[in-house]
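REQUEST FORM: STRUCTURE PREDICTION
Request ID: SP-0412
Submitted by: Lab K.M.
Chain count: 1
Length (residues): 490
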Amino acid sequence: MYTYEVTEQTLAIHLVTEQDLPALLAAESAFVRNWLENNRFAGRPGEYCVVPNEQGHPGQVVVGYRPEECMLWALADLPGCLPAGDYKLAGDYSEQVLSEVAIGWGLGHYRFEQFHKSSHAPEPCLLLPAEVDQARVDAVVDSFTLVRNLINTPANHMMPQDLEALMYRMAEMHDAEFLAISGEALLTENFPAIHAVGRASAHAPRLLELNWGDEEDPLVTLVGKGVCFDTGGLDIKPSAGMRLMKKDMGGAAHVLGLANLIMQLELPISLQVLIPAVDNAISGDAYRPGDVLNTRLAKTVEIHNTDAEGRLVLADALTYAAEFDPDVIIDFATLTGAARVAMGTEIPAFFCNDESLTQQLHEASVASNELIWNLPLHAPYLEKLTSKVADIQNCGDAYGGAITAALFLNEFVPSHIPWAHFDVMAWNLRARPGRPVGGEAMGLLAVMEYIEAQFVHADEGEPEDVESEGVELEGVEPENLAPEDGGQAA
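STATUS: Completed
RESULT:
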């Protein structure tokens, strides 16, 4: 994937804009000029051309780009296109740009191949200059790979017990503490909503908790929706709506990827990760429309629709998170189709209960070159969740669904604790450079930028590179995720 030495065989990759192409052509030999013109290279973003040398072998690569766009993806399409060999980015670029390009190059190598044979042919390698923090590049690529692999893994290989097994291994790898509360113990320990949503499945529901870092450092709590498969419950989804529901644990995948990045870079924070892991299945014991469920906060919820289950399991987890009075709570969830209607599938929507946190996340979005967008916690819409028989209803009408879902969650977070809720697609419907169709990390870079800006570099004039030995975490191998309890409900 990467190389660390320049040799005579290292080929240069030249970035060029449409505006700069005429000057480039004028400065090149007639052979190069004719080759580019005959191949109709115009310098459009994502366009590339391999120019041969006099012996007919690859001599250089010319790639079109727009400098105002994120450099993360400038070369991300090339690992799947270029012949094997060593390459380097030609030109004078900042350390930040070189790091972004290197991360994008690594993500361009991603393939989900756990369930079919791959060729393992030699791949192109990019030069990592000495000024680039290799540990950080590796950590980001590892964490994206973890998120993607978790989401792409079929549900029969990624049930609550499989998430538990993986999270346990992560805790061991990073010297973290791990706790799992499973099955009927959820009732004993007062997580009734998690139990209710997952009790119909043969795969016992559970709350998974990981704690890492120095307790004297700021406490950052990450909460991820871990619905390993969502049939919709008794309000069953149509087959088309159920087809991609292996991705409904995408929130859990995001917080595990973010946690891996934090721990691998050894950031000076105290980290808590909470995942309510369930399989929203159908059986004689499934919860029903019209049921009234209790929650950890003792707030009762009338079930209007069993397909609005993610907010129920998150309610218990958020209540539990607040009991530790963290400096910030951030949750990720594949929560609503309404957020996709509002923002499309590629822009994560987020909600905040704190104006400062909202501004800080916007600043992190700009600094990380990853677009996230704030939607309002519009309090008057809470009326849509009014119940005649309980404290609140789990969903409202067809309008403003992302907002009402966020308002529901907001009822379980004390106002004095800064909280952000990310409603993400977690799936690429189209292929783009470095981003194949399938599971995707969305908002991870922006949230990481926020965490570092607020809790690592807050007292510094300029951010510094974080030194770390790093811990390599390979992609999830499903055969290594054997259930520890045989998948039987407690």
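NOTES: Residues 462-490 have pLDDT under 50 and may be disordered.
Reviewed by: T.R.
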